[in-house]
Design goal:
253 residues; globular; 8 helices
Length: 253
């Protein structure tokens, strides 16, 4: 528990046996001023691993759930479904690309009034080689589109983020693939939630990325993210169009 708030963590993982134990150890080592553990539970969703990711996670104190259908979003949704009651949900990748202690500014932002706190790699320090050129370009393009369409400052779609459980429920997340992170941020803007960014640093992940590490993964991620932006914009326009056609009850007496 952190500042009287129960904190749960969701980690989607696919073949992360080299890193998942390190990530979990760092999470459990997070302590408050009186050396109390900050993290109350960790849910690892094994998204079809063929290595020992699940067993290592169990041995490291996590609750492990399984989702055979591939997809970042469906893995997150499966992890969310397994959560116990909590106040804040922290999302972390299982590849040791984040500096786990930097979760504290994200949690502080939530406790101080934000509904969603995004760890922005762009605002932090990026270790050489931590992000590919494709990742940097895709992130810049997507962030720019969101700023232009919704007039809201966004610098990153990074997966390291914290959100209140109430806001997470309100957003009614749907995407099962690569559009997950952008869906959360755009819906937060559309619904008027308080979203902030905090700088986080990035390091070279352990193992090979399933997204940026392959051409297929890079194309899939780019298509999923841009497709989600277009979808949410279309849905918003459609809703506003329908709303504008409704008769004003004040003049129908």
């Amino acid at each position: 528990m952190y500042r009287q708030q129960k904190v749960s963590v969701v980690i989607p993982a696919l073949n992360e046996e080299q890193a998942i134990g390190l990530v979990l150890a760092q999470l459990w080592q997070l302590t408050a001023h009186q050396d109390h553990s900050i993290i109350d539970e960790v849910i690892v969703c094994d998204n079809g691993s063929t290595d020992n990711t699940a067993q290592i996670a169990v041995n490291a104190g996590a609750k492990v759930v399984f989702q055979k259908q591939p997809g970042y979003g469906i893995a997150c949704l499966t992890g969310i479904a397994a959560l116990s009651n909590c106040d804040i949900v922290l999302f972390v990748d299982g590849d040791d690309s984040c500096f786990i202690p930097q979760a504290l500014p994200l949690l502080d932002a939530i406790i101080e009034g934000a509904d969603l706190a995004i760890g922005s790699r762009t605002l932090g320090n990026i270790q050489q080689g931590a992000l590919t050129g494709v990742q940097r370009f895709g992130n810049l393009l997507s962030s720019t589109l969101i700023r232009l369409i919704w007039q809201h400052p966004i610098s990153d779609l990074g997966p390291f983020r914290a959100i209140t459980s109430a806001a997470l429920q309100q957003l009614s997340m749907q995407d099962q693939a690569f559009g997950w992170t952008v869906e959360m941020q755009v819906k937060a803007i559309q619904q008027g939630l308080v979203m902030v960014e905090r700088p986080v640093d990035s390091k070279i992940r352990i193992g090979t990325s399933k997204i940026s590490g392959t051409i297929k993964g890079s194309i899939g991620a780019g298509t999923g993210i841009l497709g989600m932006i277009a979808k949410l914009r279309w849905q918003q326009n459609r809703y506003l169009k329908i709303l504008s056609k409704k008769p004003n009850k004040l003049f129908n007496h």
